[in-house]
Amino acid sequence: MGNTVAREDFEWVYTDQPHADRRKEILAKHPEIKALMKPDYNLIWVVVLMVLAQLTAFYLVKDLDWKWVVFWAYVFGSCISHSMTLAIHEISHNSAFGNCKAMWNRWFGIFANLPLGLPYSISFKRYHMDHHRYLGGDGIDVDIPTNFEGWFFCTRFRKFIWIVLQPFFYAIRPLCINPKPISRLEIINLLAQVAFDVVIYYLWGVKSIFYMLAGSVLGLGLHPISGHFIAEHYMFLKGHETYSYYGPLNLLTFNVGYHNEHHDFPNIPGKSLPLVKKIAAEYYDNLPQYNSWIRVLYDFVMDDTISPYSRMKRQLKGEVKQD
């Protein structure tokens, strides 16, 4: 077991997040980037194909031995499920149908949610908008771990367990940090998901349900793609709040690795973020960046100076508007 890390609290900062100012500066110098602020209609067909792929997998695993159900849940189902959560991330930014058809995006998000097994899409959208508006905001940004997480998961072994349990913490953290009244769309999301799960169980049985739920949990826990949870905002270098990843797993994750670019331009679909980096290379090439999410996970566990406390946090001033 590793030694307790030195950090005993979050990195409190008293400046605004850097993304708004950099966005203004980049747009002043490269106004052609505005042409990228449009929907990615290909996202619709990719999501439909992913849902169909999982439906096919639900059917194929129904008669397999349990060991093979578990195997395929981790090797295939986890990748599709985690990728689908990032498709839902894209949809939360109205990338499928555009801002003028916001409700179409909400319904499509509920559809994309179906093969995950647990209702997620609508709640994610509500909290994720807060994450962009109030990055690191105390009591608002639920991407920031709780004080308990920072205090308890402070050794190598405990940090490893924390990575395994990330789906659990992402699910309960909003209830602890920033609970919100349940909305009508969240109830619809829940009812649609329960109905879908019941139909899958009725048609193909418990192994298909297990494959669906296990794939979602495993894909968001100890999995190479889950490195993005830590890579995006954990402070491996003092003073740097957001980091980009430019490795091959962007192909499976709708370019979520281009995270500085995404926070600078949240209304540009993931498909176009590499173009943002290319056009405004002078702003991004010299920022700290990663090429391996697996290495991020390894370094997070093994580096005794890094823990869930390794996040920038800010006390918000003025009026806070939440979704």
TrEMBL record:
Residues 5-43 form the Sphingolipid delta4-desaturase N-terminal domain. It is found in: Endoplasmic reticulum membrane. GO terms for cellular component: endoplasmic reticulum membrane. Its main location: endoplasmic reticulum. It is a multi-pass membrane protein. It holds the Pfam family FA_desaturase. Keywords: Endoplasmic reticulum, Fatty acid biosynthesis, Fatty acid metabolism, Isomerase, Lipid biosynthesis, Lipid metabolism, Membrane, Oxidoreductase, Transmembrane, Transmembrane helix. GO terms for biological process: ceramide biosynthetic process; fatty acid biosynthetic process. It catalyses: 11-cis-retinol = 13-cis-retinol; all-trans-retinol = 13-cis-retinol; 11-cis-retinol = 9-cis-retinol; all-trans-retinol = 9-cis-retinol. It comes from the Eukaryota. The chain crosses the membrane at residues 43-61, 68-87, 107-124, 187-204, 210-231. Its EC number is 1.14.19.17. GO terms for molecular function: isomerase activity; sphingolipid delta-4 desaturase activity. Belongs to the fatty acid desaturase type 1 family. DEGS subfamily. Has sphingolipid-delta-4-desaturase activity. Converts D-erythro-sphinganine to D-erythro-sphingosine (E-sphing-4-enine). Catalyzes the equilibrium isomerization of retinols. Interacts with RLBP1; the interaction increases synthesis of chromophore-precursors by DEGS1. This is Sphingolipid delta(4)-desaturase DES1.
